[in-house]
Amino acid sequence: MLAFFGMKQAPFTREIAPEQLFHSTSQKEAMARLEYAVQERQACMLTGEAGMGKTTMVRAFAKQLESSRTHYEYIYDSALTPKLFYREVLERFGMNGASRPTVLKRQYQTCLLDLYEQD
């Protein structure tokens, strides 16, 4: 079917090559903020409406990162409660989260501080 229409790849897939991205003003600003967060060793959260290109932007940005020096986690579940968010982050870093929310939050904060101090 692709050959019939003279296409090399299927259109409208979720996997868009970074060089094929259209960078609107807001996307350029988001990329700059992501770059700033990495340079300043800060946590960063990218939010937006469904279908706005957040996943594609994060994938494109991740390809630019120096993998030996930068660790990132992409959590795509927007329905997480704070408790589940903390637990998800801790699990990504190989830790078991406590059941009490206050302890869980403290574990999350300690995890981030430990990561910050590792470099």
Automatic annotation (TrEMBL):
| Family matches, as SUPFAM superfamilies | P-loop containing nucleoside triphosphate hydrolases
Domain ORC1/DEAH AAA+ ATPase as annotated: residue spans: 40-106
State any single GO MF term: ATP hydrolysis activity
Q: Which InterPro entries match?
A: AAA_22, ExeA_AAA_ATPase_DNA-bind, P-loop_NTPase
Which Pfam family, giving just one, matches this sequence? AAA_22
Question: What name does the UniProt record give this protein?
Answer: ORC1/DEAH AAA+ ATPase domain-containing protein
